[in-house]
Amino acid sequence: MSERSLLPQRPDLDQLRRRAKELRDAVHSGDAGARARFTAQHPAARLDTARLDTAGLAAAQFVIARELGFASWPALKAAVDADAGARGRELEFLAVSIRPGAGRAVELLAADPGIAGRSLRAAAVLGDVGAVRDALTLDPALAAAVDDARGWPPLLYACYSHWHRFDPSREAGLVEVVRLLMAAGAGANTNDGGRPRLYSALRGAVESTKPEVTELLLGSGAHPDLGQPLVEAIAHGDHRSLQLLLAHGARVSGSWALGAAVFHDDPVATRLLLDALTARGQDAAGAASGELVEAAAIASLPLIDALLAAGADPRTADEDGISAMRSAVRAGRNESAARLTSQGAVDDATDIDRFLGACLRAQRGTVQRLLAEHRDLPDRLTARDRAVIHHAAADRDTAALVLMLEFGFGHDARDEAGQAPLHTAAYHGNADAVRLLLAAGAEVDARDTRFEATALAFATVGSGEQDGEPGDWISTVRLLLEAGASRGAVWVSDKPPSREIAQLLEGYGIGSGHDDAARDENREFGADPGPVSDVPTALGDDVLSEIARHIEAACQEADLDLLASLLHPQVHWTGLCRTSAQVLDWYRLALADGTTPAVESVEVDRDAVVLGMTLTRPTEGTRPAPPHRLYQVFTVEGAQIVEIRGFPDRRSALARD
């Protein structure tokens, strides 16, 4: 008999100690069963039963050890410690196997090659077909069993696995493992219902770029829109999965898919999306026109050509009246401007547009000439104009940033998502830009208005999300820490840093659990809201209170027509939407995704309605993610909602200014 054969599945030494104390006490009280156990296992008790009356804890521990098949209590303790260590290594192995970056995962497997044989989830994440088949043959129910760490079944580990990247020979095994698990009962729509971060089998396959798994899941009935995998396919440049999703009816209209293709400058994805709209009889030309202004500022000529070929109007303008032509000029993209002109666009660029473009191209002579010709030009720059410095902060060539700081662009200019240039530079790992901005006086712990995060948090997230892309996140993080950056809330659990940055943070004493202890401490940054009552104020009889009741009803009952009647046409949702149509599309998409809102509180605060709510989604095959709690602040002017902002708690919602 193996010494470990009688141990419980997850042995707990404290529990075993309690069992020993209970056994000792039962023996002392004369319990016949306890005394029989003692005499059966303890040699001294067999020789002299009188010793039972004075048996100590050590003797009881010896009996417990012998009953579990061990020669002694120290031998049992060593086995329990070894089991705990093995489980810890397995948990770490699983964690690093579902993230990019092969280093630690490969190290752990090399140190423990037999790890796949000890649990189905480890075998699944490795694509070990033999181990998975053997485990399911013994117990098919294991295909649906969830673990304690994440509440995941083996299917999610196989779908999110990156081992096909670490070792390409494992790709076919991962596909076969998914097939085996679904044949044993795992569902193609397996998901945890999480908001805003959903973990699902399909999204995992797309995020990790396994198109064969994507095809297998879709063919087995996976919903093509759950968690917006279309956007993930675009973000990861996976055109095969993108084609599969579109072929299975993934929604394009009303989603951010085309915007994502423009953001990632992907002409192929752009054409695929526009072709899908055309094939479905939807307004591809209108969708293309809607993206042209943004594309003119950030995208390549092939992408702009794809939009124009789909019928985009070269004279189109955004809600602020800025045309695609002006957008190209003010971004310093003269080639794009020329292409638009050749397609019929009118050159309506202003002196400010040309000034901004010259700054971004680091054309000092042109900048000086324009300032000499238009001496009032700096005074006419809007907040949106000044936010162009973010393009320079993201660029590896810091010449434009140097020029813009010299000519009066603020190091604290916020973009439409509420980020400062330091956030942008840190996210992109642009260490030179971080150094320049800090030297110019940028506040190291300034927080953006969307995530309430510091530049250091943006740097850690950027290092993970852009792992493998150009960027010096090590120098960026060091610069921020040496400048006195707060160490709290910089390790975002669902957006972990790259392995190198994780090791660097740990070297500074910042571990993955550091943020829990520091969360309350970090609320001191930003505006101090003063005392906040735990009880929301009651609604009155004024106009704003009446609007609050309508907002509550619209959200509680998912009544988009009622919500539409409350929105200003140019309502601004920070970082997400700039028109009422976009806001309604966002809500429509969330509802179609299965999101269920539950309003918990509603109150009027100054010129706004503050709505406390939770969002949930249906789950399948996993431990459900906890409800996502948030506070939405609806600013009202003239009986219409003109701005929407989201906050993680009531205190920050009331301190929004």
Automatic annotation (TrEMBL):
* Keyword Transport tagged: no
Q: Give the domain of life.
A: Bacteria
Q: Which PROSITE patterns match?
A: ANK_REP_REGION, ANK_REPEAT
UniProt keyword list:
ANK repeat, Repeat
The record's region (Disordered) falls at 515-536
Keyword NAD in record: no
Pfam families xref list: Ank_2
Q: Which InterPro entries does the record associate with it?
A: Ankyrin_rpt, Ankyrin_rpt-contain_sf, Multifunctional_ANK_Repeat, NTF2-like_dom_sf
Composition bias type Basic and acidic residues, residue spans:
515-526
Annotated ANK repeats reside at 417-449
Q: What is this protein called?
A: Ankyrin repeat domain-containing protein
Species of origin reads Actinospica durhamensis
